[in-house]
């Protein structure tokens, strides 16, 4: 990500942490620093593809809203001590119509908890990634002392990302002691790295340091505006799944939870399959009728009545439609029985989007049987050669 900082003559907020100070020079990041932090986590999720992600001190859930679009995530959790903040934008975490029209491959549940990052709750066990973005500096000394034992020792996720202000950067801001009135402390790089290395050693993690918000030219020695520690659980520890001493330590209060529609759920999988299969059956029938209208077009209308489901080659069918999409040429062709137009399930299964949803003919049959008419032996989808209201001439 390209990130810039420039000194500008007093122009509004810096990083959402500062009030405008008229007439003074303030540093302005582009993109704003909070977005750079969200982008940093988004990139990390794209790289590591965690299934279970929790954001401690998630505030108004903005980061969760960005992460909910990641297909790899099956459980997305936010925790904050401020219930009003959690509820403020919770509606943004709800599925929208597009989520029903094109359901996700995997189920995803999003849950918001009212609770503290320094309280144990067994529902936070077994996560792949826990993020604590601009959280620790809001903890008083008592809570800061509890934080490692709860997050590293108890929750013990595979990866933890902690971001916090770098106080060495503060002299570049106008009249700044602490960047926010609720901050209990701000650490310089040595303080943060000493704390992080101690915690990592104690709980068998490795830690890597990084940062966001480059200082302007000439001030490089102060380091990044935001300092970041990325903690990874050591392999031997990671292999041992954490077993809660009390399996149902449920301290947090659920304030919101939603499960997204997914193709794992039968009704959405069925819809997805039918939305592929039904148009295709009618497209094949259209091709068939077009073939009949062409001079010399031999078709099933010319076949002897009640040939049975012999799956006789369907001479007038133009296979171009399917050939483009899949490899149905090796599958049985559509055929007619009396005034019925039949498309073998095997042929429908060969459609590129149907195959991954059904895998085999049995599953396809089971999924669509109550929504379409099947041939008497269940091997084909059957529709009338002509709709009742169609004028056949
Ligand atoms: N992480 C969010 C972001 O980057 O946009 C919000 C950061 S905000 C500066 C700090 C958040 O931590 C606030 O929403 C606050 O309510 C929350 N917080 C403070 N102490 C907490 C605790 N002990 N456990 C969980 N959240 C806490």
Describe this structure in words.
The protein has an eight-stranded mixed β-sheet. A three-stranded antiparallel β-sheet has the order 11-12-13. The protein has two domains: 31-259, Rossmann fold (3-Layer(aba) Sandwich), CATH 3.40.50.150; 266-392, no CATH class. Mean pLDDT is 85; it is low at 8-22 and 298-325. The longest helix is centred in the C-terminal third of the chain and has 28 residues, at 266-293. The relative contact order is 0.11. It has 393 residues and is of the alpha/beta class. It is built from twelve helices and 13 strands. The protein binds S-adenosylmethionine.
Which terms summarize this structure?
393 residues; alpha/beta; Rossmann fold; 2 domains; eight-stranded mixed β-sheet; three-stranded antiparallel β-sheet; 12 helices; binds S-adenosylmethionine
Helix-strand layout with pairing:
Elements: E1 4-9, E2 25-30, H1 33-48, E3 52-56, H2 62-67, E4 75-80, H3 83-88, H4 97-101, E5 109-114, E6 129-133, H5 141-155, E7 159-165, H6 189-202, E8 205-212, E9 226-233, H7 235-239, E10 253-259, H8 266-293, H9 320-325, E11 335-337, E12 340-344, H10 345-349, H11 355-358, H12 361-368, E13 380-384
Parallel strand pairs: 3-4, 3-6, 4-5, 6-7
Antiparallel strand pairs: 1-2, 5-10, 7-9, 8-9, 11-12, 12-13
The chain binds S-adenosylmethionine (SAM).
């Amino acid at each position: 990500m390209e990130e810039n900082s420039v000194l500008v003559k007093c122009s509004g907020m810096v990083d959402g942490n500062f009030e405008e100070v008229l007439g003074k020079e303030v540093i302005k990041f582009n993109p704003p620093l909070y977005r750079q932090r969200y982008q940093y986590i988004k990139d990390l999720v794209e790289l590591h593809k965690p299934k279970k992600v929790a954001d401690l001190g998630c505030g108004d859930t903005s980061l969760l809203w960005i992460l909910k679009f990641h297909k790899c995530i099956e459980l997305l959790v936010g925790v904050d001590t401020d219930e009003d903040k959690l509820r403020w934008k919770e509606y943004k975490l709800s599925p929208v119509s597009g989520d029903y029209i094109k359901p996700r491959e995997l189920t995803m549940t999003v849950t918001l908890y009212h609770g503290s990052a320094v309280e144990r709750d067994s529902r936070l066990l077994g996560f792949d990634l826990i993020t604590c973005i601009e959280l620790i500096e809001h903890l008083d000394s008592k809570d800061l002392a509890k934080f490692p034992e709860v997050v590293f020792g108890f929750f013990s996720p595979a990866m933890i990302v902690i971001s916090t202000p770098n106080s060495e950067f503060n002299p570049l801001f106008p009249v700044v002691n602490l960047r926010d009135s609720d901050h209990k402390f701000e650490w310089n790089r040595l303080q943060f790295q000493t704390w992080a290395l101690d915690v990592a050693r104690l709980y068998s993690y490795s830690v890597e340091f990084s940062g966001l918000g480059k200082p302007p030219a000439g001030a490089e020695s102060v380091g990044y505006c935001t300092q970041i520690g990325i903690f990874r659980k050591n392999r031997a520890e990671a292999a041992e799944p954490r077993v809660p001493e009390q399996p149902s330590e449920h301290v947090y209060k659920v304030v919101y939870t939603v499960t997204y529609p997914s193709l794992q759920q039968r009704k959405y999988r069925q819809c997805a399959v039918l939305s592929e299969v039904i148009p295709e059956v009618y497209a094949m029938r259209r091709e068939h009728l077009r073939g009949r209208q062409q001079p010399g077009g031999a078709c099933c209308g010319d076949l002897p009545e009640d040939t049975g489901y012999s799956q006789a080659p369907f001479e007038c069918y133009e296979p171009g439609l399917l050939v483009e999409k899949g490899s149905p040429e090796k599958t049985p062709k559509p055929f007619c029985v009396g005034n019925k137009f039949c498309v073998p399930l095997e042929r429908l299964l060969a459609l590129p989007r149907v195959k991954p949803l059904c895998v085999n003919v049995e599953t396809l049959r089971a999924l669509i049987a109550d929504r379409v008419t099947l041939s008497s032996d269940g091997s084909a989808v059957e529709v009338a050669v002509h709709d009742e209201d169609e004028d056949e001439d």
